[in-house]
Design goal:
This protein has 188 residues and is an alpha+beta fold. It contains 4 helices and 7 strands. It has a 7-stranded antiparallel β-sheet, with helices on one face. Strand 5 and strand 6 (115-125) form a beta hairpin. The two termini are 31 Å apart.
Length: 188
Amino acid sequence: MKISKVILPSNSILYNTDFDFVDSYRGKYIDQNDEITAQDIGKAFFKSSPKWFEKLFEIRNGIVSVLGLKTSGKTKSKKESIDKFTCEPNERLGLFKVFYKTEHEVILGEDDKHLDFRISLLKTNDLENKGSNFLTISTTVQFNNWFGKLYFLPVKPFHKLIVPIMLKGIIKEIESDIDNLQEQKSNR
């Protein structure tokens, strides 16, 4: 599966916002019947994180809690939390709050004293190949003070490594959802 670094899509909600850092990555998946919704993509974001990323995030939470920054807190059951997740604005799952949801895009993120970040999960149709869709994950960061800039220095290289891997995982999760939907239809 090919993941490409792209510019922030002009049809993203984030396009006309202020930010100090931005990056975007895009991958393709097949959804012949356009069955995957923005909510499905939002859930796939949370289902697809690799175990080693979750461990990194635990380490991050341990360090930043001492500094008074927000952490994701402890959840009883990740699977149960994701199953209940409706991806509606103001809903929260771990560190991530849903800011916006449209038919084709979900904006997740958090505002903290050092920086504010947003993650866009944007689904677009591949106009050249019917039934193919692109999923673009974009991240914007707005620094609120010098500590935000300092904090982001060691995060940035990990971010550039993790986001393409996460996008591959999200697309695999979406493709699995599509396969499950097709199987359910054929069993009726």
